[in-house]
Specification:
The chain is mainly alpha-helical. The protein has 8 helices and 2 strands.
């Protein structure tokens, strides 16, 4: 015959411990699930951007690997090897590019293995990259446009600086009487020219510079 007191204690313990244990298990599972999704987000970004490895998204998630995969030493080891290769200037050639891609595939496959995907895939699966020709042309066009705009802006800045210097040089001539804009050729009255021969020299120089700048603007 069971002791009623013992049975009562067991029931009380079950009532108290049961909910606490259930909450602890739930919190552990949620944490583990959240950790997996953070790792998967890094992996998904790297795999999805294989057609454009040089992007802000890729750089951001690569810098997260040491933190997100802190309990995966093999992933971190491959990442450090890949990082060293990325910073090695002697690999800036075709053979170096092949070596880097091979190390990248190893890193991605190890990530896939840690996430439980490696059972149904191989390293060769990571070689298949889809890159539409139209998307490649669009990227090249944007790059060429940016380069051309940069060239035009640099030339405009240089010409504007030259115009400003020419205007300042003429304005500093003593006793000047300036008519019009320096870029159109500075005009000084004949009376001032006679009294100040140096104005004649400055005026001629400014006019020549203005003509050169107009020609340069047309070429740009």
């Amino acid at each position: 015959m069971e002791n009623p007191t013992i049975q009562l204690v067991i029931n009380i313990i079950a009532i108290l411990v049961g909910p606490i244990l259930a909450v602890a298990v739930t919190l552990w599972y949620q944490h583990r699930n959240q950790e997996w999704f953070v790792k998967f987000d890094v992996f998904k970004t790297l795999v999805g951007n294989r057609h454009r490895p040089v992007s802000d998204e890729n750089v951001q998630v690569l810098n997260l690997i040491d933190v997100v995969y802190s309990n995966q030493p093999r992933v971190r080891e491959l990442w450090h090897e890949y990082l060293e290769m990325l910073g090695n200037t002697s690999l800036q050639n075709s053979s170096g590019y092949v070596m880097r891609k091979q190390k990248e595939r190893e890193l991605l496959f190890e990530m896939a293995r840690s996430l439980g995907f490696a059972k149904n895939m191989s390293v060769l699966d990571l070689d298949r990259i889809y890159m539409p020709e139209g998307l490649g042309r669009q990227a090249r066009l944007m790059e060429d446009t940016q380069i051309e705009w940069l060239r035009v802006l640099k030339n405009s800045h240089s010409l504007g600086h030259s115009c400003m210097l020419t205007g300042n040089a003429v304005s500093q001539v003593e006793g000047k009487e300036v008519l019009g804009h320096p870029q159109d050729g500075v005009q000084v009255s004949s009376a001032k020219r006679k009294n100040h021969p140096d104005i004649e020299m400055a005026t001629g120089t400014a006019s020549d510079s203005g003509g050169d700048m107009h020609a340069a603007l047309r070429r740009a």
